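Changelog-linked ticket: FE2/S2 (inorganic) cluster example.
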Amino acid sequence: MSRQQLAKLDQLSTGQTLKFNYRQNGVPREGFLVRLKDTWVAYENRCRHIAISLDSDNGEFFTQDGKYLFCQTHGAVYEPDTGLCVHGPCKGANLFSIPLEIGESGVWIDME
Ligand code: FES
């Protein structure tokens, strides 16, 4: 297992996101890091309705009002802090959360 730094603490402002690649059980995956007001979260970039990326590859994860994460294909809407789908075809499902380590040096994940 190895660690990968995703961002420095001052790298993103509230509401900004950053895509990254990682491995889970040796399988390459794409995730995205989200800077929230008081914390950071990360999720796999995969809708829970159909296994395709949320952002259609353009790096836009937030709804226009900045309140929710959303899937550009069929409009599923997710709570940013929990990843819970609150509207759309996969209502009640959760985005796959990626555990983070947050320290003075930045935001990190463990690679498997
Ligand atoms: S593929 Fe995301 S809502 Fe349908």
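Closing comment: Example verified and attached. The longest strand covers residues 27-35. The domain at 2-111 is CATH 2.102.10.10 (Rieske Iron-sulfur Protein).
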